[in-house]
Amino acid sequence: MRQIVLDTETTGLEAHLGHRLVEIGAVEMIGRRPTGRNFHTYLNPERAIDEEASKVTGIKDEDLVDQPLFRDKVDEFLAFIRGAELIIHNAAFDVGFIDAELKRLGPEYGKTTDHASVLDTLAMARAMYPGQRNSLDALCKRLGVDNTKRDLHGGLLDAQLLAEVYIGMTSGQVVLDLAFDASKDHERTDVLGEIIITRRPVVRRATDEEVALHTARLDALDKAAGGKSVWRAVEADSTIH
Length: 241
What we know:
Layout: E1 2-10, E2 21-30, E3 33-42, H1 51-57, H2 70-81, E4 85-88, H3 91-105, E5 117-120, H4 121-128, H5 136-143, H6 155-169, E6 187-192, E7 195-199, H7 208-225, H8 230-240
Helix pairs in contact: 5-6
């Protein structure tokens, strides 16, 4: 599945009051892995940025004077997201601003959901961690994602962090690989209830790179937990026995 992790920055909080986009950052993932393809642009909003918004992003009016208008980047942006699943934290906010920009350009541009589906990671987090803080920073801390470079909000940086958070949130979702060895020497039929296995499954071993990534993830979880994570504790217990 092709997924696009997306974040925007704006001149203020209310699209219906005429606030505009000033930055779009998007990271492509395929099979839940970043591909290295990104979309990033600053935008001239054709209006002033609210003081509070400027404090959050560090972006000032003078920084955007020579940046392109949304209409200059819309075709490239829509081509990048077309057919993908958009992963957005608090999706209603970002999608509302994108839809407002598309509406300004005319009905032929439609809405965001005419070009891509949308998954809201804030809704996911609230379901997974009820009663807890579920801001991007809080999720980074909970899942062991390094956000020390996030002094200010930024579209591309936040999209990159959200990609790591999403992978952490969904790491327990395992897709069963039912690939089978086609060798006739191993052909047999085992019946387990109504499930019929016609060939011996191939056992796939983790590569050295995958083992290293797994170890790094456990190290990050240990650091976030302030001690030994549940996984490491279970691993140690199983080794003892």
